């Protein structure tokens, strides 16, 4: 008998939940105490084919639906998400291990914002093309056409937000979608599908399949799929992009980072410490844009570390639904092991100085002791060649590095194959802009860290990704362009005229 807290999840396609035919299931686990939450049915290849066929059938009429009518449905879905915010956030907390103080104020809200943003954009003419007068009797007009059936593949750190950041522009532009959540955090997907259906989305426009990497790989290689939008690790992204490119599919890749956070000597100390903590410990460090390489002027190191150590005491692991808890476990046992491996490596092999935290679990109540908890950890006296400084850890581990000059720190900040985010803390705004201009990253901040509103197009440079999500530019990733040259002259200019 199953001891799961929620009913078994079936696949969702053609407008309703449908049983998978594989006969296989996997479990979603509550990371705070390692107890099972639900059984999830795994999609067989035939189920995926059927879901894709439903999405393909739905594409014709959805893509022909006027943008303003599509917008009305998506706006209603955004309103339903907001109405059900607390209930959805509760499930996100159980599934991902993130504190309810986060999920109830950020995860659903920022997803609904993006849905509303794209609904308003297309409803207000955002998919209109351009007209260019070439000469008196000739002009060019362009049209943005949807791509077809698209795939969204999500990571586990911001489950419903990722599902919405992908499905909102996809559906607003007139495409249909097959969405595969991470197997570690699948519970949001059916709720989102049901909300879309309740809002009036036609059957087959948004569909959900479950499974691990092989399900993702099957989707990515499927001949009917026009585009793959992927969020996950660089190594997986390279496989996905390679498979998609073989069939000339469009891709968007939102991948990992090892981002530099640069503090200048004139920065306000408290702001710099607060920024560095948000950039390393929010969501227990499981944020792709984390500023894990914290560059501090050598002259400021002692003061920075003293204030940081005082503030580290404000990190409060504990029961995830407590109003004061601001730090949860890692999202899975396997990920907790990976982060612990890096902490051990930092201590034993890199020989960085452990300033705070380290191996073992933080103090949590007895009933949470089986959860996937890791202590918030700070290393100092780090050098650029250390493994903990070079590789993405994706956990609550900060590395402090010191520097002497601006030229030096910019050069070191850019010495990485990743280029997701970067930021500067200083009161000298002229210098801040000059430094930002030189940093090789697609998402940058000045005197703040982490905010990523619907209006802001975000995406990585170098190995951190291809394309952007959100903002006006984000819609372009879900359409293809058609240019038409019209000539009303009446006589075709030809070189084949009679001499
Ligand atoms: P993974 O790359 O392990 O997995 C991402 C998704 O891809 C999961 O749904 C996974 O399935 C699926 N998948 C695995 N193998 C394949 C394959 N061969 N073909 C298609 N799909 C596959 O990433 P994580 O889930 O570990 O997420 C953490 C990573 O995501 C970090 O590197 C982080 O930086 C990055 N990230 C990037 C963001 C950005 O916007 N740039 C935002 C958030 C996270 P399953 O897990 O079910 O096996």
Automatic annotation (TrEMBL):
Region described as Disordered = 1-30
Q: Could you list this entry's UniProt keywords, alphabetically sorted.
A: Metal-binding, NAD, Oxidoreductase
Q: Does the keyword Metal-binding apply?
A: yes
Q: Which InterPro entries match?
A: Ald_DH/histidinol_DH, Ald_DH_C, Ald_DH_CS_CYS, Ald_DH_CS_GLU, Ald_DH_N, Aldehyde_DH_dom
One Gene Ontology MF term: aldehyde dehydrogenase (NAD+) activity
**What's its top-level EC category?**
oxidoreductase
Q: In which residue ranges is the amino acid composition biased (Polar residues)? A: 19-30
The entry's active site is: 254
Gene3D superfamilies with a match to the protein in the record: Aldehyde Dehydrogenase, Chain A, domain 1, Aldehyde Dehydrogenase, Chain A, domain 2
Q: Which domain of life is it from?
A: Eukaryota
Q: What is its EC number?
A: 1.2.1.3
Instruction: Report the catalytic activity.
Output: an aldehyde + NAD(+) + H2O = a carboxylate + NADH + 2 H(+)
Domain Aldehyde dehydrogenase, chain residue ranges per copy:
21-483
Q: Which family does it belong to?
A: Belongs to the aldehyde dehydrogenase family.
NCBIfam families attached to this UniProt entry: PRK13252.1
- What name is this protein filed under? aldehyde dehydrogenase (NAD(+))
